[in-house]
């Protein structure tokens, strides 16, 4: 089969790799029908995630069909259409028993495309399949479902829930990429007074408006002043960091009000300064986190009911064998307008650029 293989910082290729095989009785083999690329994959390619060894197949999000299961798998069987979660759960360790699957100590957590071969391939081995794949309704489009593998539960759990968004809040989302846009969409579920999106790209700011942001701000044009003006000088109740660079994290800490929350979602590859000389007196809460995906069943039900705007986040589609082109488009989002790209083996659709108006 073929897969997208990491060969070291700046080096990767869509190439022949060995077919996966059942290694443990809790494993399943999934034939990949739809897969997507995450911003974390770009961090890996830049060398920001040193745990990823050269030779690893990347990817941690997929929809596909079960083709083989180990002898201990009970909840799925060959022929089932499933969502492959970005988080693998042993279900037995102390963290999994608390629903903190991202911190699994039994061989799970974020392992696909990180510590073991991932989903950007024709087939993938999924450990602990009973808790790490989710059966899908037959009518759910793969392009919608694959967004529930990572970006929607990540933005919802690590951004909105960790940030403690409540009715009447002012919520600022810094970074209007896929995670930030999903945070805008899921923050709306809690009826905040206003949502402000901050980014550099006009197309992404327009996408944020379409998904429910009440105001947008160019990151180069004093977003702090806009938030100050909107909140009578107090600052935002919740600020969600969805970029992963020092400048945006520090911007978030400047925009939060006393007693507010900064929820960091972005994957950071460099140190950020924590200005405790200014923050110690403000009673703020700063949270970080890897998604646990405990919310995935709920988000699946909401998507099936048409309550979440998944399709609006997908701007480009490709067949699997154009993985390298898809990476170029996604990695060059400033020029291509890409938000989320989805690759599938069933058909090739025309690339659909985001409007720049």
TrEMBL record:
InterPro entries assigned: ADH-like_C, ADH-like_N, ADH_Zn_CS, ER, GroES-like_sf, NAD(P)-bd_dom_sf
Domain (Enoyl reductase (ER)): residue spans on this chain: 8-343
SUPFAM superfamilies: GroES-like, NAD(P)-binding Rossmann-fold domains
GO molecular-function term, one example from the UniProt record: zinc ion binding
Alphabetical UniProt keywords: Metal-binding, Oxidoreductase, Zinc
Required co-factors: Zn(2+)
Similarity remark: Belongs to the zinc-containing alcohol dehydrogenase family.
Protein name, UniProt field: Zinc-dependent alcohol dehydrogenase family protein
